[in-house]
Amino acid sequence: MEGEIKNFIKVWITVIASLTYCYFISKNIPKGFIRLFSILPIVTIFTILPLNLSSIHLIGIPSFFITWLASFKLLLLSFDKGPLSSQYYDYSHPNSSNIISLSRFISLACLPIKIKLQNPSSQIVIKPKSPLYYALKVLLLALLIPILHDYKQYLHPSFILTLQWIHIYFIVEIILAILAYMARFFLGLDLEPPFDDPYLSTSLQDFWGRRWNLIVSDTLLSTVYEPVGCICTRIFGTRWAQHLALLAMFAVSGLMHELIYFYFRRVWPTWEVMSFFALHGICLAVQIEVKRCFSGRWRLHRLVSGPLTVGFVLVIVFKLFLPQYIRCGADVKAIREYAIMGEFVKGVIQGYLG
User: Fold this and answer.
1) CA 28 to centroid of chain Cα atoms
2) Could you point out which of 12, 109, 206, 227 has its C-alpha 20 to 30 Å from the C-alpha of 290?
3) What is the pLDDT of residues 263-280, one digit of tens each?
4) Calpha distance 14→8 (Å, rounded)
5) Contact between 22 and 42 (Cβ < 8 Å)
6) Is there a contact between 208 and 229 (Cβ–Cβ < 8 Å)?
7) How far apart are the first and last CA of the chain?
8) Where are the transmembrane segments (predicted)?
């Protein structure tokens, strides 16, 4: 465990040094392809960094925060777009200087946070969750872990899959919420919540666009959906461009998830996760067309559409998303690491007190 912690620290030292380089690059090289070529080596380094780790939890953090989100933010920065650009920063904080500091640049790059803009009409307004809400999630997670560890053999496989999915959702939401609170406290930023009760979704469009992991959705919209949509509009027209951009966004999300699974298992992907996102992209495109055809003349009640949406998502999760997670042993390894981390923290405390 100590060796893994040391490797984790080395990874983050590399991240901070790399982002410092990118900060000065953005100040001294004009936007465009020259800046892009100067940043691409850093994106390559960020892709390699998770290979230095073996812990499921420690791999998950840099692969999601750095290899995916930070790399995409840097690609946007190449053309002076996204949350790292001075234009975005100045627009979000009109009373502040348009020169972003190094510390804030690094924080915005490597933390999965989304700044709340000043014009709420251009974005989804989500009511922030109370600390009690997250405390309840932590309590439920603490109750869930012993069940998955000690009573797994006594439970039905479908119920186990449900608990595994809840476990993943709680872990991701709690980590993102903790980091958001830290960013608010230390950086004074007004941030958007990362989730908005996805289990209350009434359609796939509602689930993916307004409730599930809005940090990723916002990043994919800027880096994939908008440029692909702009290019395809000139060739196919607005209607088809919307669907092609949507499919491209889900394809990129699938590829990034496959890459994260590769870090976990270090074997060639089986493309089940890619199929999961491709299927959702296709179904979402069909749903948009159906809504367009009916133009609001007919709509299922939310008491019907809600369970149908959540049920559909869970079925596809069980069939395509979780099997690869379980096959690579991530579920067992993750539960085992909780005990290891607990013993490590206990040893550190005892050593400090003794």
Assistant:
1) 30
2) 227
3) 988 888 889 999 999 999
4) 10
5) yes
6) no
7) 21
8) 32-51, 58-79, 131-148, 168-187, 244-264, 270-288, 300-322
